[in-house]
Model the fold of this input.
Amino acid sequence: MIISNDTLTAKLKKAQDEDENIQTLKSLLEKNEAEEFLERNGILYKYINRRDLIVAQKEMQVELIKLAHENGHFSVAKTEEIVKQEFFIPNLTNVVKSVIFNCSPCILANKKSGRKEGF
Done:
């Protein structure tokens, strides 16, 4: 796992346990009404492109994206690629763009130096 570790996995499980939408998906899964999802060790996954991706609970999404991005202050595409290896986040591109747009080190690094006033 690139982003995940035991502490983060426990935090993700707890967040999923407290999320009503994820609990609804889990009950649909029990009734065989959510074929693209599976549950393993109490964690909900979505099966996409032959991979089991952890369903990231809404409040955890920004934290997960920040972990992926801040490991090298990668571009939107590279950050998405890292996140998609382990997690399912709806509207991933928009969330990644928002996180990177608000990343202080990236803002400072990309700040263009222009002509200073008075010179």
User: Anything to note?
Assistant: The helical segments are 6-17, 20-30, 58-69, 76-84, 92-101, 104-110. Residues 113-119 have pLDDT under 50 and may be disordered. The longest strand covers residues 43-48. Residues 9 and 43 are 9 Å apart (CA to CA).
